[in-house]
């Protein structure tokens, strides 16, 4: 990953290094280099300005940069070790969603729908300082459900910006209640101040996805290509015996 404002590799003399950086994602390894059957595709969803990009960047780089390119929709990839085994993790950042005027439906770009369809696990983010962002979570989850009507959906709910306690608009117990109604776990986190909390949240979801997390049905349907049929061994053996016996017959009749 290279940060805008930092000198580019091979151009170390160029000026840069001001306080705020914008992050440009560069895949850590080619997507094709994924660990077969050990891939977790995670999408991060939520309203504007809740810290989606900040959380991803914090998880991947342990850094809080403060100023992020808006609505990048970038895909990040990383290998992580879970329960002693390597897992290919892909994390999709998304543009923000917004409630419609009737507060029932969502404004959701097509790009986001594609990401929801693609993903195996969902990080739903709101800011504890913004009750409106909290109100988008339930309709957002319903939207994910419409795209994946069958099977459980591995999901975590993240109440971000927990460092801004004085500006809190959403109590922690509301977050917990909502998360359990969605069948997920609630994490209160601060991308700004705490790497461990963010790390724990992402790893938890990753584990849910890899273990099947109650969404084995979707994973089996979504992740695996149809396997080519294996050759029928019984049939092969029968034909082999047939060929052998006809050879034996023809050699004995030749005698
Ligand atoms: N205090 C505080 N600020 C945060 C935290 N996380 C993100 N921010 C700030 O919140 C603002 C929005 O962060 P982003 O990561 O760009 O949020 P986003 O949800 O990706 O925003 P969109 O691009 O609008 O979808 C930035 O100014 C961040 O510095 C946090 O944990 N605490």
On the 0 to 100 scale, the average pLDDT is 77
| pLDDT < 50 runs, ≥5 residues | 1-27, 213-233
Structural class: alpha/beta
Q: What gyration radius follows from the Cα positions, in whole Å?
A: 25 Å
Order of strands across the main sheet: 4-5-3-8-9-10
Order of helices and strands: EEEHEEEEHEHHEHEHHH
Total number of beta strands: 10
Question: Could you estimate the helical fraction of the residues in percent?
Answer: 25-40%
The count of helical stretches stands at 8
Shape: globular
Oligomer: single chain
CA distance, first residue to last residue: 78 Å
The set of bound ligands, ions and cofactors reads: guanosine-5'-triphosphate
Query: Main sheet?
Result: 6 strands, mixed
Strand portion = 15-25%
Chart the SSEs and their pairings.
Blueprint: E1 2-4, E2 22-24, E3 39-46, H1 52-61, E4 75-82, E5 85-92, E6 98-99, E7 106-107, H2 110-118, E8 121-127, H3 131-135, H4 137-147, E9 155-160, H5 172-182, E10 185-188, H6 195-210, H7 216-223, H8 233-254
The chain binds guanosine-5'-triphosphate (GTP).
Residues 46, 48-54, 66, 68, 70-71, 95-96, 160-161, 163-164, 190-192 line the site of guanosine-5'-triphosphate.
General description of the model:
- The chain is an alpha/beta fold.
- It contains eight helices and ten strands.
- It has a six-stranded mixed sheet with strand order 4-5-3-8-9-10, with helices on both faces. Strands 1-2 form a two-stranded antiparallel ribbon. A two-stranded antiparallel ribbon has the order 6-7.
- The chain starts with a strand and ends with a helix.
- The chain has helices spanning 52-61, 110-118, 131-135, 137-147, 172-182, 195-210, 216-223, 233-254; strands spanning 2-4, 22-24, 39-46, 75-82, 85-92, 98-99, 106-107, 121-127, 155-160, 185-188.
- Strand 6 and strand 7 (106-107) form a beta hairpin.
- The longest helix has 22 residues, at 233-254.
- The protein is globular, with a radius of gyration of 25 Å.
- The site of guanosine-5'-triphosphate has 21 residues, from helix 1.
């Amino acid at each position: 990953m290279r940060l805008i404002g930092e000198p580019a590799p091979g151009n170390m003399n160029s000026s840069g290094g001001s306080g705020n950086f914008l992050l440009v994602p560069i895949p850590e390894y080619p997507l094709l280099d994924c660990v077969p059957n050990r891939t977790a595709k995670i999408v991060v969803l939520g309203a504007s300005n809740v810290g989606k990009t900040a959380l991803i960047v914090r998880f991947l780089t342990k850094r809080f940069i403060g100023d992020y390119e808006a609505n990048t929709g970038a895909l990040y990839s990383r290998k992580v070790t879970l329960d002693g085994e390597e897992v290919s993790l892909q994390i999709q950042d998304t543009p923000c969603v917004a409630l419609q005027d009737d507060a029932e439906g969502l404004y959701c770009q097509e790009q986001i729908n594609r990401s929801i369809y693609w993903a195996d696990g969902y990080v739903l983010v709101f800011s504890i300082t913004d009750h409106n962002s909290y109100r988008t979570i339930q309709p957002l989850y319903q939207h994910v459900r419409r795209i994946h009507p069958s099977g459980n959906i591995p999901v975590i709910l993240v109440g971000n910006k927990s460092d801004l306690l004085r500006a809190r608009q959403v109590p922690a117990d509301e977050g917990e209640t909502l998360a359990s109604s969605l069948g997920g776990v609630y994490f209160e986190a601060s991308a700004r101040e705490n790497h461990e909390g963010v790390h724990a949240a992402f790893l938890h979801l990753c584990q849910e996805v890899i273990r099947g997390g109650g969404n084995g049905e979707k994973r089996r349907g979504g992740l695996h290509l149809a396997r080519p049929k294996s050759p029928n061994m019984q049939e092969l053996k029968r034909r082999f015996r047939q060929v052998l016996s006809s050879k034996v017959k023809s050699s004995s009749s030749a005698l």
